[in-house]
Design goal:
Largest sheet: 4 strands, mixed
GO molecular function: methyltransferase activity
InterPro entries: 3_dmu_93_MTrfase, Glyas_Bleomycin-R_OHBP_Dase, PhnB-like
Structural class: alpha/beta
Keywords: Methyltransferase, Transferase, Ubiquinone
Number of helices: 5
Mean pLDDT: 95
Pfam family, one: 3-dmu-9_3-mt
Organism: Agrococcus jejuensis
Strand order of the largest sheet: 1-4-3-2
Distance between the termini: 47 Å
């Protein structure tokens, strides 16, 4: 059976990033960490540093690769967290912004490691495709962190 996994190129900090990510979601875990060999020459003195961290986050397989500065993370790629309720949005939002992250728009943020996340309610698809989808979209465009109540009011036409 073929399965899809995600590999993300980082410039250092992958062990710290992985520890944060698995701490945020129940059932997540670090599976394996590989290291650059101590006896080999690598650019930027990578010997002994973590090369990859394999983990599961919310049931999804993710590998963090410490590949150096050649390919920086951008908002062109994000991980989407579909969550139940405003309290869970708030918890994850605050935890991922802690230590130097930055807010973006429409439920997007960039954490302190440079990885982009979208934190959305599980009902987002329904809200965005219902009869008042235009009002929901207009409300969403005014938000950094998603306000579920506001989107539900827009969807209800109130």
């Amino acid at each position: 059976m073929t399965r899809v996994a995600t590999s993300l190129w980082f410039d250092g900090g992958i062990e710290e990033a992985a520890a944060l990510y698995v701490s945020l979601m129940p059932g997540s875990e670090i599976l394996h960490t590989s290291r650059y060999p101590d006896d080999a020459a690598f650019p930027g003195d990578m010997a002994g540093q973590a090369l990859t961290v394999d983990m599961t986050i919310g049931g999804h397989s993710v590998t963090l690769l410490n590949g150096g500065p050649a390919f920086p993370l951008t908002e062109a790629v994000s991980l989407v967290l579909e969550v139940e309720g405003q309290a869970e949005i708030d918890r994850l939002w605050d935890a991922l912004l802690e230590g130097g992250g930055r807010e973006s728009q429409c439920g997007w943020l960039v954490d302190r490691f440079g990885l982009s996340w979208q934190i959305v309610p599980t009902a987002m698809g329904q809200l965005m495709s219902g009869p008042n989808a235009g009002a929901v979209t207009a409300a969403l465009m005014t938000m950094a962190k998603i306000d579920v109540g506001e989107l539900e009011r827009a969807s209800a036409g109130s």
